């Protein structure tokens, strides 16, 4: 019987603790919301839902490119292979660069959104809504940034080794677990913050 990879198991356990962390942030958000419904109604009016939706689509698409990179890593194919056909020609490294780029666009979009909200009179700590908004989305942005750093390490590792082995493939797969987790958390945050007004 094949034993599960300890790195993958450890990552899944760690992500379980991250679920609890974000559950706490959701609890803060809902508690503050229930105590100040009028404030919530006023503040949600200034949110730029179409912009946030486009930014969300970019993050969701980055999960697709990430998974394509995982498929390439499982084929032990770090770089493009002209002998393959279709999307199988593309190696893990190009897929992960695409994922990194889209993740960076997402974080940049969040920074731009923060600047717009501050300009419209909603700085961090102005009231309970702004505190909850910046706390939840800010912690998520920090997690995305951590994922971007992990992609750079994974790509760098692929360049550094002479032969792409099971270790490098496992690294790529574990990073994808984290990235998909960050993506799912954002979909939940997006639904709660931008649609449950």
Automatic annotation (TrEMBL):
The chain crosses the membrane at residues 12-32, 52-73, 94-112, 132-156, 177-196. Gene3D superfamilies: Cytochrome c oxidase, subunit III, four-helix bundle (1.20.120.80). This is cytochrome-c oxidase. Keywords: Cell membrane, Membrane, Transmembrane, Transmembrane helix. It holds the Pfam family COX3. It comes from Microbacterium gilvum. Signal peptide: none annotated. It is found in: Cell membrane. It comes from the Bacteria. Its EC number is 7.1.1.9. The keyword Cytoplasm does not apply. It is a multi-pass membrane protein. Residues 1-197 form the Heme-copper oxidase subunit III family profile domain. Belongs to the cytochrome c oxidase subunit 3 family. Its main location: membrane. PANTHER family: CYTOCHROME BO(3) UBIQUINOL OXIDASE SUBUNIT 3 (PTHR11403:SF2), CYTOCHROME C OXIDASE SUBUNIT III (PTHR11403).
């Amino acid at each position: 019987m094949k034993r599960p990879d300890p790195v993958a198991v450890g990552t899944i356990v760690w992500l379980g603790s991250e679920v609890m962390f974000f559950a706490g942030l959701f609890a803060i958000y809902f508690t503050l919301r229930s105590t100040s419904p009028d404030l919530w109604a006023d503040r949600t009016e200034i949110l730029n839902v179409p912009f946030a939706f486009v930014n969300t689509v970019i993050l969701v698409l980055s999960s697709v490119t990430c998974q394509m990179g995982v498929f390439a890593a499982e084929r032990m194919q770090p770089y493009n292979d002209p002998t393959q056909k279709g999307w199988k020609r593309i190696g893990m490294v190009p897929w992960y660069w695409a994922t990194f780029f889209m993740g960076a666009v997402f974080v940049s979009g969040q920074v731009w959104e923060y600047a717009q909200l501050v300009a419209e009179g909603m700085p961090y700590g102005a009231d309970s809504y702004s505190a909850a908004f910046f706390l939840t989305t800010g912690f998520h942005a920090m997690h995305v940034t951590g994922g971007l750093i992990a992609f750079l390490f994974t790509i760098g590792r692929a360049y550094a080794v002479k032969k792409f082995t099971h270790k490098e493939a496992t690294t790529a797969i574990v990073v994808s677990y984290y990235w998909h987790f960050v993506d799912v958390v954002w979909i939940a945050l997006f639904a709660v913050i931008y649609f449950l007004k």
